[in-house]
Design a protein that fits this description.
It contains 13 helices and five strands. The protein is mainly alpha-helical and about 325 residues long. The protein has a three-stranded parallel sheet with strand order 1-2-3. The protein has a two-stranded parallel sheet with strand order 4-5. Helix 3 crosses helix 12, helix 7 crosses helix 8 and helix 10 packs across helix 12. The longest helix has 30 residues. It binds adenosine-5'-tetraphosphate (AQP). Adenosine-5'-tetraphosphate (AQP) binds next to helix 1. The site of adenosine-5'-tetraphosphate has 22 residues, from helix 1.
Length: about 325
């Protein structure tokens, strides 16, 4: 087995503003991984993925810069990590094409995200939405990344990435692409909608009250938590008391993730409390944690040229890794170089 440099890759789509789900499920973990210093780290705004569903061009450009501001404000250091926008590193799309020819239609058709997003209208969905996981595999493997921190919803795509790497290696008789490992840890792997505890909190949910946006002000955050769906029972004293209570569980999970405490400790401290009171505490905690991040995002957004400079430099650093890996891939496949 070839030896690979321990390297982390992960990305977020600029398909809307950042949500509390992206923040807790992804960005805070990215920052922790970067700061641990055990792996090289590459973080990406995946704008090519965003256009698998319609995006207004100016909104996409704004969201991409705002997402970059979110990464920086949360603690991603562009000197320590490689911070990039996907379309500025063309090898992602180039390897994506090779992987379109490795992945099988049947594999793609089984992806739950495809089924959820295409819904009943698969005929009208874009080809890009169907092929999304092959491009995602390329995003990861064009860096020979070994670990991918993600939320629970992306686990199936990482498994597909492993299948694509294994099929490529097998078909061409090489040991070229690594077996990537998903890293799905902590209580925040799946933050749910504030309006329906059985659905994921999502930046493209048409109902704004279903999510906390990182750009929401303190009043909006408090109002959204106040109106969050719960049941009439008080908080239980132990995690088993949250069984069959998805909305209640979600709020407790969010509290635990924001405070750094375990779910058991949060429940022990709030045993028997009514949700009205708990929601107020949760809102205060969320505002205390998120407002420094959103203030810094707003500051960074006042200088978009600086954001563009950071992304250009990130792309140049990224290509030192991606160009040789793509060149070698083309050689293996039989392209004249
Ligand atoms: N609700 C969530 N809880 C925990 N983690 C989440 N992630 C997203 N939502 C939650 C994690 O954030 C990273 C980036 O996700 P993405 O933007 O690439 O796509 P997504 O998972 O499809 O996120 P959204 O917000 O739901 O976007 P849209 O609405 O455009 O589809 C991933 O690591 C993801 O697990």
């Amino acid at each position: 087995m070839a030896q690979f440099t321990p390297r982390v890759f992960s990305g977020i789509q600029p398909s809307g503003g950042l949500t509390l789900g992206n923040y807790l499920g992804a960005i805070t973990k990215f920052v922790a991984t970067q700061d641990a210093g055990t792996h090289e780290t590459v973080f990406c705004m995946v704008d090519l993925h965003a256009i698998t569903v319609p995006q207004a061009p100016e909104t996409l450009r704004h969201n991409t810069r705002e997402l970059c501001a979110g990464f920086l404000a949360a603690g991603i250091d562009p000197e320590k990590s490689i911070l990039i926008n996907q379309s500025q590193v063309p090898e992602h799309a180039q390897l994506g094409w090779v992987f379109n020819c490795v992945a099988r239609m049947g594999w793609m058709g089984r992806m739950t995200q495809w089924k959820d997003k295409a819904g009943a209208n698969a005929e009208g969905a874009s080809l890009g939405l169907f092929a999304y996981p092959a491009l995602m595999a390329a995003d990861i493997l064009v860096y020979h990344a070994t670990h991918v921190p993600v939320g629970e919803d992306q686990k199936q795509h990482i498994e597909l990435t492993r299948d694509i790497a294994a099929k490529f290696n097998h078909d061409y008789g090489v040991d070229f692409f690594p077996e990537v490992e998903p890293v799905i840890e902590g209580v925040a792997t799946r933050i749910m909608s504030l309006r329906d505890g059985t659905r994921k909190m999502s930046k493209s949910d048409p109902v704004d009250a279903s999510r906390i946006n990182l750009t929401d002000d303190a009043d909006t955050i408090a109002r959204k938590f106040r109106k969050a769906k719960t049941d009439p029972d008080p908080l239980p004293g132990a995690p088993e008391g949250l069984d069959q209570r998805p909305d209640a569980r979600n709020l407790v999970n969010i509290y635990a993730a924001l405070s750094g405490a375990s779910v058991a400790d949060v429940l022990a401290a709030h045993d028997g409390q009514m949700f009205g009171h708990f929601k107020q505490e949760l809102a205060d905690l969320a505002v205390a944690k998120l407002s420094p991040v959103s203030d810094e995002m707003a500051r960074l957004m006042r200088d978009p040229a600086e954001i563009d400079r950071i992304l250009a430099r990130g792309a140049a650093r990224a290509r030192e890794i991606t160009v040789p890996i793509l060149e070698r891939t083309y050689e293996i496949v039989g392209m004249v170089r």
